[in-house]
Structure formats: structure tokens, C-alpha cells
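Thread: sanity check for a docking pose with S-adenosylmethionine

Original post by kr_44:
Hi all, I'm comparing my docking run against an independent structure prediction. Below are the sequence and the ligand SMILES. Could someone generate the full complex and paste the C-alpha cells? I mainly care about where the ligand ends up relative to the chain.
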Amino acid sequence: MKSAPQIHLSNVQAVYSGAEGKLWELLMGEQIHLGGLQSSLELARCAGIAEGSRGVDFCCCAGAGLKFLVQFQKVAHMTGVDATPAMIQLGRQRVAAEGLADKITFVEANVSDCGLPPGQFDFVWGEDAWCYVEDKRAMITEAARIVKAGGKIAFTDWMLGPTDMTDTEAARYLTFMKFPNVLSQAEYRSHLEASGCSAQLAQDTGRFASQMPLYLDMLEKQLTYDALKIIGFDTALAAELVGEMKFIQSLAQAGKVIQGLIVAEKC
Ligand SMILES: C[S@@+](CC[C@H](N)C(=O)[O-])C[C@H]1O[C@@H](n2cnc3c(N)ncnc32)[C@H](O)[C@@H]1O
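Reply from moderator J.T.:
Ran it for you. Here is the predicted complex with S-adenosylmethionine included:
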């Protein structure tokens, strides 16, 4: 694990209530995760998400994963849990506008203590968001608590790769991204096992290093005006953002950061 103890949920909420969150959506689209729809389809296939099932998206943001699961996987009902009120509000608006409100419910809560009933859900889902969660052990315990026996916990996340990151690199990466900590696949597996789940699949999607240049290209070659508008035409800040994203790209190329994909089953 690599940690940035100065980063807390309030810092993450500030990101997703303001300009930084808008910038991520500009670069990535409504699905704020590496690989967009392709990544969601891969995760759903690996997890065997079934038509008519009921699931929970931990850190659902404005509901892109919820809508994907209902529309593409024909899931009967999704509950989205997120701790940023602005994202919940935006998600409710989008879901209503797209006519999906009867199949999607939002809950404003910390995923480490979400308050949903025990053993009711077929799966818990997460896409590139659990890196923002401070207490990952509590979050995994919570996911295992609400899923049925035989149910799945399926997620992608920004994880530590096979090559060690130095503490200096970790401090720079986590501080820029507002991640309180990041885990390796092995650390996630151990939390899952401690919560009575067995990991069926843990892999590197291989997507990270190829996606970052796409976002950098958009920032530098196509969406420069739009990005500058979001950050109040602060060109110095824009240059800093590009520099930090290039730094993250160098970490990915060195195998220090990956998009990990894990599917576990509740025993
Ligand atoms: C990158 S976005 C999620 C993207 C989304 N999964 C998708 O694929 O479009 C991260 C989200 O995590 C939420 N979040 C971070 N920490 C949280 C916590 N402890 N509890 C609930 N939500 C949290 C933030 O509010 C934000 O909306």
C-alpha cells in the first residue's frame, strides 16, 4: 500500500463538486474510468453479470455505471452509493432524463458504511473509484456484508503495479490525484479473503499506459479551450496538469500503476 495521510474524503468531495471533476468528465466522458464502455463490458463479462439481477455500484459518481448495467446487461435494479452530494444530484437528473429512474436508486453515503441491508444483492460493482476510498478494508467488509452468498464483488481500480513505486513518486501521484491510498492486487485479495470472499480473477487490464496518451492528446490537441474554460483560463495550472498527467503516464509505462480488474465471490 502507498498512502497520503493528508488526503481525506473532504478533499475527494471537493474534486467531484468542482472544476477537477468536470475536467475528468471532459477528458473521459460520462464514464469516468479508463477504457469507458469497453472496460465496463469486460468487467461485466468477467463477473458474469446476469440479466434480471440486482446490484450496487460503490462510488457511482453521476451514475454512468448504473445506466450501463441497466441498459447493456439488462440488470433489473441498481443502487448507486456515492458520498458527493453534487454527483448524486447530477446522477438523479441524468437518470430521470434518460427514463431510467424506476430501475436506479441513489444513496448518499460513505461506501465504508453504506447502510444498505445485508445479503440482499447479487453483486457489488466498482469502476476506477475505490482508489479514492480512505478505509478500503471497511469498504470491502461492507461489500461482502450486503452481497448474497454466491454473489460477486467485481471492480476495476487504479492499483499498484508489479514494479515498486518510490515513496517520493507515490507522494506526488497520490497528492495530485487526491487518492488517500492505493493498493496492489494482492492487498485487495487479502481484504476480500478476510471478508469471506474468494478472488476468482485478478488481472492487469493492460489499458493504463495506452489510455493516458489519449487524454493528453485531447488536452493538448483538441479540448484545450474547453479545459481552460473549466479552470478559469489559468494557463499555468493547465501546464501543471499536463505535467502531472505525463508523470502518471511515466509511472504506467514503468509498470508502477495499473488498471487492475478483480472478481471475487462471496463464500
Ligand atoms: C472517478 S469517480 C467514479 C467514476 C465511476 N465509477 C464511473 O465509472 O463513471 C469517483 C467517485 O467516488 C466517490 N467517492 C470517493 N470516495 C468515496 C467514499 N468513501 N464513499 C462514497 N463515494 C466515494 C466520489 O464522490 C466520486 O463521485
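The pocket of S-adenosylmethionine is lined by residues 9, 12-13, 16, 31-33, 59, 61, 64-65, 81-84, 87, 110-112, 127-129, 132-133 (CB under 6 Å). Hope that helps with the comparison, let us know if your pose agrees.
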